[in-house]
Amino acid sequence: MSRRVLSAVCIAAAVVLAACSPAAEPVPGADSLPEVQWLPCGAIECAQVDVPVDYAMPNGPIVALSVFRRVATGVEKPKTVVVLPDRRYGASARQIVERAPLTMGSEVRNITMVGVALRGSVDSPMPAGSEHLVSSLAVADDIDTVRRDLSLKKVSVLAWGSGATAATVLKMLNPDVVSTMVLDSPSDPGVSQTMLAAKQIESSEAAVVEAMKWCASHISCPMNANVAKELNKFKTNLRVGRIAEGADYGTIARAGTAALAAGRPQDLFVAITEASDGDSQKLLGLGGALPTVASAYAPCADVSKKAAARIAQMYAANMNAKTRLIHIGAEAIVYEFCKDLPESSLTLGKIDADTNAFNADVLVLIARGDQVAPPYAARTMAKRMGWKYESVYANRHLVVGIDRAVTARALQFLMKS
Questions:
Q1: How far apart are CA 408 and CA 401, in angstroms?
Q2: Do 109 and 146 fall within a single domain?
Q3: Are residues 96 and 229 in the same domain?
Q4: Could you tell me if 217 and 286 lie in one domain?
Q5: Same domain, yes or no, for 323 and 197?
Q6: CA angle 168, 103, 409 (to 5 degrees)
Q7: InterPro entries from the xrefs (predicted)?
Q8: How far is residue 254's CA from residue 115's CA, in Å, rounded to a whole number?
Q9: Full domain range(s) for residue 295
Q10: Residue 20 in domain
Q11: From the CB of residue 217, how many other CB atoms can be counted at a distance below 10 Å?
């Protein structure tokens, strides 16, 4: 008997057997159990959604994503908006949902907001040995898994920073599951990440210049009388070892990023002034600790080892370049860790967008003076994709939930039909 005939006989037998067999009994109570089990968490609700650690092995180990929900009030059929935080800057997923009425206004009560803690974050820790599996592509799959577990055909998305980059990946690769989307300060997953690193260096240098201009024009700045002279005094003291308590150029670079990303240049200049006068506590506190390998998991997961090595070299060269001002950032250290981590197979840079992702209901927002995510990336991506783009006159990283007018604009866009 030929293989094709044998297959036909087997199929026919299977059909007869199925027809003669009694119907399977439903599991008691299965229909009444929601996909996600929500529990009270103060003023909001909390739950967990299990997702594969590695989507290439769907039946392998899992990671429990923490999700947080604020249910709409006074609306018959509210829209569900999934919110994704940045990994490093701004509020956590829980904080965003808890504080939404305060940071986004009363209109936010008209939507059901679901915050997702990104894999690898404090609220969604990865199992030991898999800490590096936190690429933006994996996060995009996580968002889609949460959507399915919430039994939603489509979702609207509001995302910040690295969360916005992951949401961009989802929209580019699976556009039909996302209705409206607001991206605050995303990167572009569809172009060379090495090129974007060069643009980010340019943005960080420009941010320092703007900060100096701000100090020179504001009497509240303690270095206002002569910014260049006071900064040179600080650098001289730093070079000859007069700055106490171990502060160095790395400290000032990290402190600069922290202060300028938060839109608080005053903090940087106060810290510099006090350090010059012998008290480095504010400078050390603002600069924080040196980056560790844990801070490199996410950046390294999005680039190849070759690209990471090149990016580390670029940042190191910039930090070592002579300047009358200061350099900011710690990326040279972060990307140097990549060589000791497993190489990612889910890298950014060659994401080919689905046809339906173009000219979609997506609003891209970014501050003109963003020193963390280069405005170039957001602007050119929005133009290429046919998405709406608005730059905000501000020198900081992240704007939604901070600038009232921009926040109102974002919510209005998300609530459109």
A1: 9
A2: yes
A3: no
A4: yes
A5: yes
A6: 55
A7: AB_hydrolase_fold
A8: 29
A9: 193-340
A10: no
A11: 10
Q: Is the pTM higher than 0.85?
A: yes
- SS3 labels along the chain: CCHHHHHHHHHHHHHHHHHHCCCCCCCCCHHHCCCCCCEEECCEEEEEEEEECCCCCCCCCEEEEEEEEECCCCCCCCEEEEEECCCCCCCCHHHHHHHHHHHHCHHHHHEEEEEECCCCCCCCCCCCCCCCCCCHHHHHHHHHHHHHHCCCCCEEEEEEHHHHHHHHHHHHHCHHHEEEEEEECCCCCCCCHHHHHHHHHHHHHHHHHHHHHHHHHCCCCCCCCCHHHHHHHHHHHHHCCCCCCCCCHHHHHHHHHHHHHCCCHHHHHHHHHHHHCCCCHHHHHHHCCCCCHHHHHHHHHCCCHHHHHHHHHHHHHHHHCCCCCCCCCCHHHHHHHHHHCCCCCCCCCCCCCCHHHCCCCEEEEEECCCCCCCHHHHHHHHHHHCCEEEEECCCCCCCCCCCHHHHHHHHHHHCCC
Q: How far apart are CA 302 and CA 349, in angstroms?
A: 9
Q: How many whole angstroms from its chain centre is CA 150?
A: 22
User: Residue 25 corresponds to which tokens in the numbers above?
Assistant: 């009994």
* Dist CA 341 CA 262 (whole Å): 30
The answer on pLDDT for 19 being more than 90 is no
pLDDT of amino acid 274: 94
Q: How far apart are CA 339 and CA 337, in angstroms?
A: 6
Side chain identity, residue 30: A
Burial 92-120 (b: 16+ CB within 10 A, else e): bbbebbbebeebbeeebbebbbbbbbbbb
Flag whether pLDDT at 379 surpasses 50: yes
Q: Do 163 and 281 sit in the same domain of this protein?
A: no
Residue 84 β-bridge partners: 159
pLDDT tens profile 317-367: 999 999 999 999 999 999 999 999 999 999 999 999 999 999 999 999 999
Burial class (CB in 10 A: 0-12, 13-18, 19+), 149: middle
Token pair listed for 146: 């949460």
Model confidence at 64, pLDDT cuts 50, 70, 90, reads: very high
Residue 18 lies in a domain: no
Based on the fold, state whether residues 269 and 370 are members of the same structural domain.
no
Going across the sheet that includes 79-84, the strands are 39-41, 44-52, 62-70, 111-116, 79-84, 155-160, 178-184, 362-367, 388-392
